[in-house]
Amino acid sequence: MARKKSKYYSGIGGQAVLEGVMMKNEEKYAVAVRKPNGEIVVEPENYQGILHGSRIKDIPFIRGIFNFIDSMILGMKCLNYSASFCDEEEPGQTGGGRGDKLVTALVTCFSVALALGIFVVLPYYLASLFNGFVRNVSLMVIIEGVIRIVIFILYVVGISAMKDIRRLYRYHGAEHKCINCIERGKPLTVHNVQHSSRLHRRCGTSFLFFVLFVSIILFFFIRVENPVEKVALRILLMPVVAGISYEIIQLAGRSNNILVRILSMPGMLVQRMTTKEPDRAMIEVAIAAVEAVFDWKVYLAEFYGYVPDENGAGNTQNRTARFMREELEDI
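-> structure tokens emitted (331 positions)
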């Protein structure tokens, strides 16, 4: 019987930023950026979230909504920080002032509004052009969903043509490789990271793809005739879609059963476009971000039963014995 993967869930995640990587572990996060002179700068911080201390953030299907909002806010802040190194006057400013927070909030709101326009309103409008040819309401929902997926893929492919985005995708690959390296029980070395997969089921790309599929199913239940009401309901239901998608992505990151693998396949395929192979220097940046928020040696000792030495090697015999014991426990 397969080993239970949930036991080895690390809980760390992150995102790529300009010439760097952000890694997050619970409330701790760190941004590591490669400066133009080659130096790696690491900025560790805490982010408690918009509902820190509230039990609402622990309620399934509700927590995903606020986690998504937190990800947007923190992601924008980290991107601004990494972009600040392009400013020769005051590099490395994190934007903690009241005015900067207001700008970040406005940019985040604008980004959400733009995303709703492109991925919710536009697909509905384009699908409505088929009203004269298709009378089946359910089929129209499917057509709208397919159009939404096509727009998403075209968007991913389109921004890939930008040089900065191509480098961002390589740092995205470095982020995934580090997490995969750790969660598969390997010491976090450049060599091991290079030989790890750049695809990960908890990726934000997979989350967005789940959002697209869940929206198709949920929109089947919208049965209003007025076009304005249809669009309004689609927008109002997006938090519900995000909450459901969050629970699916969490399940995908902790389980390895056949159903989860099938559900994850489309998102993993899109990740082949949003992640690229990083070079050694990019991996070094990603490792620096991980080590600022996560003690991977303690993790390997706890879950894989060995402590790596200074060269990144470990006691293979003890590790193999631990795996054999766990296999017997799972049978």
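The two ends are 6 Å apart (CA to CA).
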